[in-house]
Target: Acyl-coenzyme A thioesterase THEM4
Amino acid sequence: MTDQDRHGASAHPHDDASAPRAEVFRGPTEPPEHAVAPERHPQAPEPGAWLGTHYDQCFGCGEQRPEGLHLRVAAGPGVSVTAEFKVAEAHQGAPGLIHGGLLSAAFDEVMGTVSWLLRVPAVTGRLETDFLKPVPVGRIVHLRAWCVGQAGRKFYHRAEARLDGPEGLLVAKAAALFVGVKLEHFVTHGRQEDVQAVLEDPQRYRSLRAFDVNP
Ligand SMILES: CCCCCCCCCCCCCC(=O)SCCNC(=O)CCNC(=O)[C@H](O)C(C)(C)COP(=O)(O)OP(=O)(O)OC[C@H]1O[C@@H](n2cnc3c(N)ncnc32)[C@H](O)[C@@H]1OP(=O)(O)O
Model:
């Protein structure tokens, strides 16, 4: 059976007149035509400044999670951040290699931290990862994430991971759609004992005030 037999008159399924048109295939992580360039908040930390953990129990950046990634994220130029972590024993999938889901988690964390420069609390709507090379235990993964566009509440981010430093071997790439939310999102949906603990801790509350200036 030929392609023509399978899909009617045309040789390719996407040539079928009843199939969705090309723009439908752009994908939800691609900024639409009307997207605007993201704006770095005037009070965002200077490039090079450490952004610190947003929550000490966070798997990505929290200091209190022994098995976590312990990402240290720094503001970069424009609307970008950089970060590094060391691949630990607890991060293995195949013997001696990082678990792919944890690399995606690292991307999620750094792209999530881009929100700090925009001063808009946002959560991941969609996250795509291209795994290009295996990543061994014991190596440093250097990450960079940046925002490529905004359309209303939707923020379009990109990220890359390189071995050992900013000029190292490119091992993975990611694209994501983040959706801006109100702080109520966290307060309403989080397990209440954890939410209360955060709200009652003045140190944590100070870091959350970064978001209050935003409409
Ligand atoms: C106590 C306080 C602590 C605070 C600490 C801060 C910590 C931060 C931590 C960060 C940690 C790291 C980060 C993490 O790990 S964040 C954790 C992982 N993410 C989540 O848990 C998010 C779960 N999802 C939701 O809550 C809702 O679905 C959201 C909020 C995302 C949207 O529901 P909402 O009802 O609000 O809005 P909407 O449905 O009208 O959608 C709005 C627009 O977005 C478009 N869209 C949505 N989803 C998708 C999709 N999948 N593909 C394509 N498009 C999508 C949608 O079509 C629409 O477009 P348009 O029709 O307008 O054109």
